[in-house]
C-alpha cells in the first residue's frame, strides 16, 4: 500500500502551488503578486521534500508491511544489482508516526497558512486595500520564513530518529497521518524545559519539588536514586541530577524522546538551535511582532548523568524497591487507571522512600477514575503511603505557554509528598 507520507508530499505541492493559486486567479480574488509571494518558497520546500522522499523510494524497496518484518536489522537477502530487499527491525509503537510528523512539519504548517491566506484573499477589494495599509500581507511572508526555520529544526529531529532507531531511508509505515500537533507539542515542551522564556514556568513548579527532596535527604543528593516518570523533555530530571542525585528519567512519547536525543547527543553549544514556535499561532497576540519571537535551545546543558529509560512506566521497571524517591510532575493524570500508577510508584520505592507530586488532576477520557485531590490521597493511604499533610499546597502554574499571549491557562496544581510505609 502506498504510504500517506508520500501521498502527502505530492498532493500539497500540487495543490498549494498550482491548483489553489489557479483557483484564486480565476476567482479574481488574489493579486498575482500575492500568488507569487505565496508560491515561491512553498514550491522550493515542497520540491525539496518531494525529491528527498522520491530518492528514498528509489533507494529502497516498496514500503514494507508489518507482516514482512523480521527481527533482523541488517539486509537479509539481496541480489547484486537492483532489487535489493532489506528487512528491518520493527519500530517501537508511535515512532514511525513521530518521525513522519517531524519530516512533514513544513507541509502541514504551510497548509495551515494556506487556509489563513484563503480567508484573507476572499475579502473584497476595499477590505484588501485597508488590510494592505495595515501591512497585513507581510504576515504571510514572515510566517513562511518562520516555518522554514522550524522545518530545518524539525527535520533534524526526524533524521536523528532515523539514525538512532536504524530505520534506513525507507518510507515508514504509519497507521495515522502525519500530525502537526505532535510537532507543535514538542516545540511547547522545548519552550517549557529548555528555553529562557520557559524560566518563569519552571520557577513556579521546580523549587517546591527540589526543596522537598532537599528536606527529605538532608541536602545530600549523593547516592540517592530518584525516578522521574513521564519526564517529558527532561529538564526537571536534569536539574535534580545537577544537585548530585542519581536520576533515572522515563518517557514514552517519541516527540519528547527524539528532541531529547538531539539535545544530549547532537548539540555542541548552548542556544545552538533556533525555532519560532509561535508563527502558527495568530490569535491572542498583543502586537504584530510577538508571534515571530525566536526561541533558542538549550539554555542550560542537560545533565548527561541522567539515564533515560524509554517506554511505558508500568512495564519498563521490573525491579521492586529500586528508588529512594519518585517525583511526578504533571504526570499521574496521564494514567488509564490511577491505581496502577500509584501502585507502581509504591512498588518501585524503598520502604521509607518519598513520593513527591505536583500537578493538576486533568483526567482524560481514557481515565477509569476521575478522583479529586482528597480521593487521590485517600487512595495513597490505602496503597501503603503515609501522606505528609503539612507538605500540601496549591501552586498556580502555566504549561508550555507563549510568554506574550493574551490567553493563559492557569492550573491550580496540587503539591504533596508521601512516604512508603514499612
Ligand atoms: C503532561 S506531560 C508532563 C511532562 C513533564 N513532566 C513536564 O512537566 O513537562 C506527561 C508526560 O507523561 C508521559 N507519559 C504518559 N504516560 C506514560 C507512561 N505510561 N509511561 C511513561 N511516560 C508516560 C507523556 O508522554 C508526557 O510526556
Ligand atoms: C542519545 O541520547 C539518549 C538520551 O540521553 C540516550 O538514551 C541514547 O542512547 C543516546 N544515543 C543514541 C545513539 O541513541
Automatic annotation (TrEMBL):
<dbReference type="InterPro" id="IPR012901">
    <property type="entry name" value="CARME"/>
</dbReference>
<keyword id="KW-0489">Methyltransferase</keyword>
<dbReference type="InterPro" id="IPR029063">
    <property type="entry name" value="SAM-dependent_MTases_sf"/>
</dbReference>
<keyword id="KW-0808">Transferase</keyword>
<dbReference type="GO" id="GO:0008757">
    <property type="term" value="F:S-adenosylmethionine-dependent methyltransferase activity"/>
</dbReference>
<protein>
    <submittedName>
        <fullName>Methyltransferase-like protein</fullName>
    </submittedName>
</protein>
<dbReference type="GO" id="GO:0032259">
    <property type="term" value="P:methylation"/>
</dbReference>
<dbReference type="Pfam" id="PF07942">
    <property type="entry name" value="CARME"/>
</dbReference>
